């Protein structure tokens, strides 16, 4: 069976450029695996590849959701699965590229997101407003201590989701995930994780990317979204790059402190991404020195997939 190719790794490691170059070599298409590039009108802060950067390669799962709506891993799998199936049926190798590990894992595993009625979700959201998150997290600790142990009080969305799954299905989300892991993957894949040999080089690249985003008009992009009526509390606006700059924009304050916070949070996010990808011991690391070497990386990928 033909395998997919996954290009992943921390932010600012050159995933887009490598995916485009590889797709050109293999005559195939790219499926984005980025939880924020799905939103329309959010281009600069999400580092969404421009038409020029795509170099004529078809990219899927970009601009599929308005920023006032929420997007989920379940919706991602629903949209991405038929694309992967079509490419495989055509004898092509799907290139899945992005840094959202949860999306990639769920797609490859073929996770079954049984539809929930939504009635409990509304009730849980009302409880969150009236009681706060602490009682809900305490309830999850009694029901599913394993899941509660890996969630923080700030992770409202996943706490509510775990409670919703349990109360509607009668089983914990931990058990659901365990059953999913026991099944063979729906789409076998060769996974390549981009990283830098020296962490300092990655952090320098992240800092430089933030400066470039500001130069490209990130503040203007955020102001436009706010003017369109997108609430600051919207899921899309919680993305790194947006939530840090919204307060000074709304309050008319200077940006220096917010920009430094943005750089810090971007570096912290990259560190979490590295931790996530280390769990996949079957993945092949592609280690950059000071700059990405796309030609060498493509040669390495072709060696592995032969």
In short:
The chain contains 14 helices and six strands. The chain is α/β, with parallel strands linked by helices and 306 residues long. Helix 3 packs across helix 4 and helix 5 crosses helix 8.
Helices, strands, pairings?
Elements: E1 4-8, H1 15-26, E2 30-32, H2 51-54, E3 59-60, H3 73-89, E4 95-97, H4 101-109, H5 119-131, H6 133-143, H7 145-149, H8 156-169, H9 173-182, E5 189-196, H10 199-216, H11 218-227, H12 246-251, H13 256-278, E6 284-288, H14 294-305
Parallel strand pairs: 1-4, 1-5, 2-3, 2-4, 5-6
Descriptive labels:
306 residues, alpha/beta, Rossmann fold, 2 domains, 14 helices, globular
Structural overview:
The structure is a single chain. This protein is an alpha/beta fold and 306 residues long. It folds into 2 domains: 230 residues, 3-Layer(aba) Sandwich (Rossmann fold), CATH 3.40.50; 64 residues, Histone, subunit A (Orthogonal Bundle), CATH 1.10.20.140. 54% of the residues lie in helices and 8% in strands. The chain is built from 14 helices and 6 strands. A 6-stranded parallel beta sheet has the order 3-2-4-1-5-6, with helices on both faces. Helix 2 links the parallel strand 2 and strand 3. The mean pLDDT is 93.
> What is the total domain count?
2
The number of E-state strands comes to 6
Instruction: Please outline the major beta sheet.
Output: 6 strands, parallel
Residues in helix, %: 40-55%
Strand fraction = 5-15%
In DSSP terms (H or I, runs of 4 or more residues), the helix count works out at: 14
The shape is globular
Query: Which CATH architecture of the largest domain?
Result: 3-Layer(aba) Sandwich
Order of helices and strands: EHEHEHEHHHHHHEHHHHEH
CATH names the topology of the largest domain as Rossmann fold
Task: Name the CATH homologous superfamily of the largest domain.
Answer: P-loop containing nucleotide triphosphate hydrolases
- Uncertain spans: none
- Report the end-to-end length measured between terminal Cα atoms: 13 Å
Using only C-alpha atoms, the radius of gyration works out to: 20 Å
| CATH class category label of the largest domain | Alpha Beta
Structural class: alpha/beta
């Amino acid at each position: 069976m033909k395998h997919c190719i996954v290009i992943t790794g921390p932010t600012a490691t050159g995933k887009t450029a490598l995916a485009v170059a590889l797709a050109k070599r293999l005559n195939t298409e790219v499926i984005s695996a980025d939880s924020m590039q799905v939103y329309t009108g959010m281009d600069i802060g999400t580092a969404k590849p421009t038409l020029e950067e795509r170099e004529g390669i078809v990219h899927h799962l970009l601009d599929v959701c308005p920023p006032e709506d929420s997007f989920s891993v379940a919706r991602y799998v629903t949209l991405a699965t038929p694309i992967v199936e079509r490419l495989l049926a055509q004898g092509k190798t799907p290139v899945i590229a992005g840094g959202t590990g949860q999306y990639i894992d769920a797609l490859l595993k073929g996770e079954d997101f049984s539809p929930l009625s939504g009635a409990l979700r509304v009730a849980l959201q009302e409880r969150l407003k009236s009681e706060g998150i602490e009682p809900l997290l305490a309830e999850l600790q009694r029901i599913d201590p394993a899941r509660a142990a890996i969630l923080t009080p700030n992770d409202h969305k996943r706490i509510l989701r775990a409670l919703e799954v349990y109360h509607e299905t009668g089983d914990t989300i931990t058990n659901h995930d365990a059953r999913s892991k026991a099944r063979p993957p729906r789409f076998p894949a060769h996974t390549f994780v981009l990283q830098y040999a020296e962490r300092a080089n990655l952090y320098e690249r992240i800092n430089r990317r933030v400066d470039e985003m500001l130069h490209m008009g990130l503040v203007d992009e955020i102001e436009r979204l706010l003017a369109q009526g997108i609430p600051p509390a919207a899921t899309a606006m919680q993305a790194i790059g947006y939530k840090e700059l919204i307060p000074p924009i709304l309050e008319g304050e200077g940006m220096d402190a917010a920009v430094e916070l943005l750089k810090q949070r971007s570096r912290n996010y990259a560190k979490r991404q590295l931790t996530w990808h280390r769990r996949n011991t079957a993945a092949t690391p592609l280690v950059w020195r000071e700059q990405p070497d796309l030609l060498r990386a493509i040669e390495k990928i072709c060696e592995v997939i032969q």
